[in-house]
Every structure is written in C-alpha cells, then in structure tokens.
Amino acid sequence: xxxxxxxxxxxxxxxxxxxxxxxxxxxREPAALRFSEITSSCGVDFTMTSGRTPSRDILEVNGGGVxxxxxDKDGDLDLFLANGxxxxxxxxxxxxxxxxxxxxxxxxDVSEKVGVNVKRWAMGVAxxxxxxxxxxxxxxxxxxxxxxxRNDVAGTGRxxxxxxxxxxxxxxxxxxxxFGDVDGDGDQDLYVANYLKFDVKNPPDRTGRMFLGxxxxxxxxxLVPQSDVLYENVGHGKFRDVTRPSGCVPGRxxxxxxxxxxxxxxxxxxxxxxxxxxxxxxxxRNLGRGKFKDVGTVSGIASNYDGGNQATMGIVVGDVDxxxxxxxxxxxxxxxxxxxxxxxxGKWFDDRTSQYGLAMTSRPFLGWGAGLYDFDSxxxxxxxxxxxxxxxxxxxxxMDSDYEQPPLLLERRAERYRRNSEAGSMFGTRYSARATxxxxxxxxxxxxVVMTTLNGKVRVFRNDxxxxxxxxxxxxxxxxxxxxxxxxxxxxxxxVQRRWIHGGSFQSVDxxxxxxxxxxxxxxxxWKLRVTWPSGKSxxxxxxxxxxxxxxxxxAAAFETKRLRGR
Amino acid sequence: MLVLGIGAIGAxxxxxxxxxxxxxxxxKVNEETLAPRTSLPPPGFLKGCLALIGQKRYExxxxxxxxxxxxxxxxxxxxxxxxxxxxxxxxYERARELFQRALQLDPQEHSVRPFYGxxxxxxxxxxxxxxxxxxxxxxxxDYPDAIFALGLIDFDDDDIDSARxxxxxxxxxxxxxxxxxxxxKARARLADVLIRTGExxxxxxxxxxxxxxxPDNYETYFKLSxxxxxLGDAEGAEAxxxxxxxxxxxxxxxxxxxxxxxx
Lengths: 567, 263
Known about the structure:
Chain A is mainly beta. Helix content of chain A is 4%, strand content 36%. Chain A has 5 helices and 39 strands. The longest helix of chain A has 4 residues, at 39-42. By secondary structure, chain B is an all-alpha fold. Chain B folds into 2 domains: 1-21 and 45-141, Alpha Horseshoe (Serine Threonine Protein Phosphatase 5, Tetratricopeptide repeat), CATH 1.25.40; 154-254, Serine Threonine Protein Phosphatase 5, Tetratricopeptide repeat (Alpha Horseshoe), CATH 1.25.40.10. Chain B is elongated and about 65 Å long. Classes of the chains: A mainly beta, B mainly alpha. The interface between A and B is large, with 43 and 37 residues.
C-alpha cells in the first residue's frame, strides 16, 4: 500500500454507476499483445527534420519530441510534433506541427489554423496550463531560445507566443522540460534540462573521437555542459528563474537530456529527476518552502549499479515491484544496459535491472523514448522502447549495434520482462527511432503509440490486443486542465494496481491518464479508485465500473464518466 | 593483462599448435576451403601474436593475424587469436564469428570456450553463453573465472541462490590459486547478491576484501559507498565515493559511453 503522506486525506466519496458492467466472472482468453501500424491511414503523414542524413554533429541526433494532449478540450488526444531544422538554418526549419484528433484516432494538421508557427529547431515539449485558464499550453525546448505558446483556442482560436512576457526564453540548447507545481502554491512551475554548448557555425572537431575503434562525431564528453533552469510561476503569466536560490544546483554539471517531476519519496512534495548524458543524474529532493537538495548520488539513482554514468535518454516512472513507491526505468546507450532503479521506500534507489530481465538483453540497443503501460490489459505494465543508434557508422560488425534498430516490446510475465517480437511487424522492422508518446488515440481503452524517427516518418501504432475489461482514468487539475505528477490506484481487498502519471519519456509528453487492465482479476469485491494529487491529498471512489473513461478533477465531488468506444 | 590470459589458453599453445589442426568437423567445414594458400608463417608466430595481445597491442596483432587467417582458413588457433584482438576491444560481434569459426575448425580447442562465453555474455545471449561456460567446465571443472561467469548469468536470470553458490565457489577456487583479480571481482559480485538479499553487513565485508585484493577496481568503491550509505555510515560512504572518483580518474579516463575492458 502507498505510504501515508502525512496530510489529511480528502473525504472518500462513494460513486456508483448503476448501468456500468460488472467484472465478468467467466474464463477469459489469454491476453496477447498486438499492434498495427496505421500511419498512412490516420492522417499523420509527416517526416521529421533533424539536420543532415547521415548525421555529422551531435545537434542532429536527438530528433524531435511528441506530445499527446487535448488542446481543444473536445475529449480526445491531439498530437504535437516538435520538429527540428538544419545546421544551415536552425531558425528556419519546416516547422513543428499540431494535429487535431477527429475523435476516432484520425488526425488533421491544424498548425496554421491555430497559430502554431514554430520554425526554430525544436526538440523537447512540455504541456501544462501555466496561466490556469483551463487550457493546456505548450513549452518547447529548442536549440536557441525556448518557446512558450499560450493556448488561447477558447478565445482567439489560436496559440500565442508569450515567451518574452513570461520570461522563459532560455537561449541555450534545451532538450527537455517539465511542468509541475514544485512549490505547492497551486500553479505550474517549469524545469528545463539543457544539454551542452554548441555553435552550428563552428561545430566541434571530430578528430580523435572514437567509439569501439570507429571514428565518430564529437560529444557529449569533452564539450561544455549547460546548466538547467528551474522557473517559478509567479502568477500573472510570468516566471522567474529560481535555480540558484532553490538549490537546484548540482555538485557536478550534467548534459541534461530528460526531466520528470514526481513525488519520489511519498512526502507530498514534488521532486525533480533529471537524466543526464554520460554524467551523473540528478534527483532534486523537495525540502519544502521552495528548497531542493540533489540527492542523486546519495540515494543511488545518479548512476547504475557499479557507478557507471549512463546516457539516460528515456525516463519512465512506475511501481514495478509493487511496494508503493515509484521506480525509475531509463534507456541508455548500446554496449550498456537500460537501467531499472527500484525505489526502496523513498530513501534509496537500487539498480535491479537484472532482477527483472532487463539488463544484458538490452546491450545491442540504443534506447530513447519508452513507456510502461499495460498494453495487453492483463493487469501488469509492459515496456515499449524505441531504439536507434546515434552514430551513422554503427553496424553490428563494427559496434555490436546497428544504426537502425527495431523497437522493443517487453512483456511483463510474473516478475520478469520477456521480449515479444511477434506482436506486430514493427517489432521486426528497423528504424532510427527516437521519441515516443503513449495514449489512447481512438478512445477504445487501450494504449496506442506514436514514435518519431530521425529524418523519417512519424509512426503511429494502434493497439489491437484482444479486448479485456479496462478502466481509463483521466486526471484534471482544479482548473480543468491536464494533471500529472499524481498517482492513481485501483484497489480491491489486498490487491492494487498503481499508476504514476509523470509526464512522458524522452523529450515527450504522454496522455495524462491511468490505464488499467483487468485481465488478472475475476469476480470478488468491487473495485475502489484512489487518486493522490501532487499536493498529497487523496480522494477515493468506490463502485468503479469497467470499460469506462473516468475523468477525475481535483477538488470536485463528482466526476465524469463515459463508455469507451466499442465497449 | 588478460584476465583469462595465456594461462587459460593453456598448454596447447605449444609448437604443435603453431600449425593448423586437422581436427575440423568434416560435417561443417568444406575441406577444400581449408587448403592453405601460402606457406605457413615462421615457428613462434602465434606465440608472438599472443604476446602482442597480452600487451594490448591489438591492432598490431590483428595486422599480423588477419592475412594469415585469410591464407590458412583451416587454422583454428589463428582464428582464435584474431578473435581475441576484437574481443579485447569489446567488439564482440566481430569476435563472435571468429570464435565460432575457431571452435568449428577444432572442437577440441577448449581454450576458446570461456572467451567465446564472455563474448556471448556481452552480446546479451545468455543461454548460449551459459552453454559455452558449462562446456568448458566439463573439461576444466575448477576454473574460477568460468564459475564466476555462470554466477553472473544466474544473477541476471534472478536465480539468486545459484548465483550465490557459484560466486562463493569462484571466490574459494580463486583464493586457492592465489588468483587475486578473479577473487576480487567474484567478491564484488557476491556483494551484489548480498545487497539484493538485504545482507548489507556481509556485502560490506566482501567489498572491503575485494578492494584489498584489487585496489584499482573503481567500481568496488562505488558499491561500497552505496552499502555504507544504507548502513548509516555517511562519512565512510563519502570517503568511498572520493576513492571511486580518484581511482576511476587514474585507471579509466572519461570517455563517451566507453565500454569496460573485456574479460
């Protein structure tokens, strides 16, 4: 069970759906993972740009991020693509894109219509309602000044660039960003992970840069890291840089690639985890009153089991061992392993990658975006990992790792993850994959995947696993916009399924929803739903019906429910 | 030095093995393709190559071995040594082909097996790796490094009891042989098992002993810092962290995603 947060829980609210189906008692067909590529039919016909092919400089290898969020509040997930540019003109790329979901998983490019006009080399994206108007805004981390787009769709029908007024236009190379109310004052603060100093007009010399005996591009090691920024939301549409006074200043600099905000120690305050490339990761523990302390090294999450500093592209948060505390899975370089840090009751992290079968099998792959979701709705969470090498010179012969690589689908079976290569043709297809975002695009209750590729097509994979009973819980804050950094639990007797809503993986944003499959549970007592908000307050609802999407709003006594498509 | 060095390659590095073997499996190898295309290199050629490998002069050894392997496609040991030049540079995919070929040409060339086993281990092919180590132990049952390797594979398979038994055995055998590097690394990995099972005090003791045996292994200091931190010895943990950084700087300068030295 989740530990006490030391704050008074909100009153439990009974909520029953008379018409809702009950958990079926009969035997079920065994769950099977199955994805189909629907890129060409869903309307997302877009090729990402990220410099040259093949890449020659480190600026060109990250690619752009993805966000799944409901910008127009019509109840479905829309799609934002942070697109790059070229070394010749990093300010004038083909532009980022916003696609509106037609409600059935088909998309239409509405970028021009709603004023998304970002030509700068964009990489990371964060989604949050910074001005509290109930509509989710976009923050885009770029090579060059980052951009804040205020969502004024309800007013002018457009997104408006408010970077200057908000004071968040960090001009350095930003890779990832995350919103979260880290000071607990009710509005969305912002953390930006910066990578390194890079000049397109004078890129670093490749001379002498080798990997496994092969000459490769320069960096990150040997280049100058750039420090990150924590912005405090001070209201009235403005932020201020509180990096130094807050204590978000690590002992050693890092090459920031990813950030996620969640309550790592269960004290009711949001902590900040930063994944750094080839340098120690940071864990800024929230001490309260706007103060933080980097406990990455002391807690054990700064590096892997033997002190190795890893590449740390993708970050995933979930309760893998079921102890009630959020564990952290990261994707890493080839000839290294991905890493699972189990959270030992909030104070320590321990590298338990091998315990779950995730270690040595990952060595041929260079991982990026990843997601921990119950793709087959059998009650436990599986892993999807996008892969692809950064070095165009990579071949299995030269580097034990190919340039293009298949994504990995790792199915949770009891206490181990097993590779499943039979769940769709994409798992036998090689891509230069990068970012991923996860969410239910077609509103049928299971988790679909969007995956970008470097200078290649955006891929959309629809989840076609056999139907199981499911429950989708979407979270909104008290302003009515998306809510992350929360925990959703589905409880019955001694059993609990727990989902951490933490934002997204590498440079990207997943749907702010918890996806529960019921494959392992039959009959018994009714389910209860518990949501623990970032503030530490929680609310319980009993009599939960299945095959519904429930929208829970912080502070609201009741919540919305609707039947999932086709169920 | 080669952790599995000349000693592991064993007594077969003799004059006789300076010549191609005829022991190839005729079912797998086309004899015609094995015919030498040039005369043999002078006696002592392979010993010289092995010495270069021992001195980490891999490229130099490769330049000598590659044309010989091309001209003498039936020479198992030449394939084996050429494989070692890649293996020691962590280029496992390239090494794998040559190890495999060496064993195919001479299945009695057992010295290949532990190297090939490690190669497969680092390629993430743990079942094949296990098979290779087990086949080596069938011939040389008390070889601590192979038992150590099986302990790691058990650990990765989450068979903690077996991992513990094997790592303890590897420690004991290495101690008997006064093979300090192997004893040190086996103790460090035994500590991983003990950390997993929550036995932090014994884990600390294994790590301290491992550092005594091999003070150059920076990873052990890091593990010790983690254990001391969890045991409440913050000061000791900080000292271990400082040692970790210091030894790492000295033994392994920073590099981008630089893999460790192959066993």
